[in-house]
Amino acid sequence: MVQSVDGKTLARMLIHASASLNAEKQKINELNVFPVPDGDTGTNMGLTIGTAAAELKQKAPTTVGQTTAICASAMLRGARGNSGVILSLIFRGFSRAMKDKGEMDGIDLADALNAGVIAAYRAVMKPAEGTVLTVSRLAGDRAGRAAEENTAFEYVLESAIDRAREALDDTINQNPVLKKAGVVDAGGMGFVVILQGMLDELRGVAAPQEGEDGAAEQKEKADFGALADEEITFTYDTVFIVRRTTNKPLEEYRAYLESIGDSLVIGEGDEEFKVHVHTDIPGEALTKAQEYGTLELAKIENMRTQRDQLAAGQQAQSTDDLEAIEEELEAMEQTHAAPEKKYGFVAVAAGEGLAKVFFDLGVDGVISGGQTMNPSTEDILKEIQKTPAEIVYVLPNNKNIIMAAQQCVDLVEDKKVIVLQAKTVPQGISAMIAMNPDGEEAENTAAMEEAMGMVTTMEITYAARDSEFDGNSIQAGDYLLLVDNQLFGTEKDLDVALEKLAKESQNRGGEFISIFYGEGVEKNQAEKALAHFEANCPEAEITMLEGSQPVYHYLISVE
């Protein structure tokens, strides 16, 4: 039984833990459902401890105090996501408890774990049970009691791991979202993997190589389709770093962030602080932060989009690596076009057919994207810069893209950018039809907004997996009928689905109906769809076009 460890041994243990977490990160990602299934906890925690591992390899500390100080400093700067920030706070408390220590025994380990837990809990405004906080707290509590039984470092660490595993297994019962999805907490599992990796190194177990995966068997993927939209309280997962220019205390800012969001964690360093918060108004959170210093890096992720992507079996879009984003932005060569005309237009649409419609209506640039593949702010900015106009209208054509587009408004100096609240492709098309090239800006903006408000958007897509929604059982492969982004019904038969939407179009008094058939829909199938609408809406002017859009079999505009 190992009685104590020095700085070199502890450094090797943490490097091993990083390798273990990296090997398990994808399984941890697939577990992540709290507070929403953003699917990147394993990646966040892996990158966070990975920064510490890299520093430890370079600096080769000899004392426990040096090792923990290097680890805490690196993890503060490298922390990503809520789970990464909490992990960095645990190690920051760990470091403070071990300051000036040459070696660490079981009592020291217990003290360090509990100091880390206290630091993490203090930083989180509303600690929730069934999370990494719970797992770490109970592990620390057991470590303290174990140290009274046996002061050996190895004994205390093993005891802490045993209790952490028990706590992890119980997280499924502590959080209704985890219970619904049938999984344990992702952050809690990451913490267990780290502790186990440390113990493995102590016992001479070889560290996993890249690509290895030794996670215990369990239900490894959450049922993301089971999570209703209302379970996502706030939309945007927001993380940013602020370089301090003032010693102004953060208490007032903490209270402000708590008033506009949840899942708040603030990690403070001597020269900077890092914020993680879920909110509907990330721009205001960033603006307020500038009262305390200079904003250095930021990432904003739409958690509803991530939930939809993961429910569809796709990889969620992520922007966790802030340093990589900074390098990309610095290296990116923006193509800039000087204004040559008064008005320009940028639209977002998926499918060659839809892109052609927008180009025919006078749009300068079309960005490929939409549901399940939202473009970034940089993607949109690039198209704006390429548009040779004094005033550039942006048509996001998806509710989850509007925020990304709005970030461009203040990034362009020689053009005015106007982002219209177009939430669907039909709204964007109607806005373009209402545009008058010779009109005044205010008149055009009002006309386009009015046109968007007169459109009903109908869609037919499919269920990616079995799920429950509003008490209804939906089976994978069922057709989903959407009207203005709301579930209108589900059907097993496509003809029945089309008939329902055709009748609803008549009920809404549709006079102009455009039907865009999607990728994989044959022309003869589209003609059958057209027949449903012609039979039910005899007075309407109906147009059938090939949209080639993915995911959606039919996209229907009703005015």
Features:
single chain; 559 residues; alpha+beta; 6-stranded mixed beta sheet; 4-stranded antiparallel beta sheet; 19% strand; elongated
Describe the structure.
By secondary structure, the protein is α+β, with helices and mostly antiparallel strands. The chain has helices at residues 7-31, 41-59, 64-78, 81-97, 106-123, 132-149, 153-174, 176-181, 186-202, 251-260, 282-289, 303-311, 322-331, 352-360, 377-386, 402-406, 425-434, 441-453, 494-507, 523-536; strands at 4-6, 103-105, 236-244, 261-268, 272-279, 293-302, 341-349, 365-368, 389-395, 416-419, 456-462, 467-469, 472-474, 479-483, 486-491, 512-517, 541-546, 554-558. It has a six-stranded mixed β-sheet with strand order 15-14-11-18-16-17, with helices on both faces. It has a four-stranded antiparallel β-sheet with strand order 4-5-3-6, with helices on both faces. A hairpin with a 3-residue loop joins β4 and β5 (272-279). Residues 33-39, 212-219 and 328-334 have low confidence and may be disordered.
